[in-house]
Specification:
Elements: H1 2-6, H2 12-30, H3 34-64
């Protein structure tokens, strides 16, 4: 996400959210706590919105590139 922010594909706020998303992923991989799982599950819709936005912006950038 940091590199996406440097390339102006995501905002600084979106980059922070992306880092939180990666942290959540790591928590679910190494933590066996129902409370943590419930918290992460509640954040999934926000994570999905962020990922969709990034994919759309990347697709737009690719579409704007000149053909070789």
């Amino acid at each position: 996400m940091r590199k996406l922010a440097l390339a102006a594909i995501v905002s600084d706020d979106e980059a922070r959210k992306g880092i939180r998303m990666a942290d959540d992923r790591n928590l679910t991989d190494h933590t066996y706590s129902e409370a943590v799982a419930d918290r992460v599950c509640r954040t999934l819709p926000e994570h999905a919105r962020l990922l969709r936005a990034v994919v759309e912006r990347l697709a737009e950038r690719i579409a704007q590139r000149p053909s070789s």
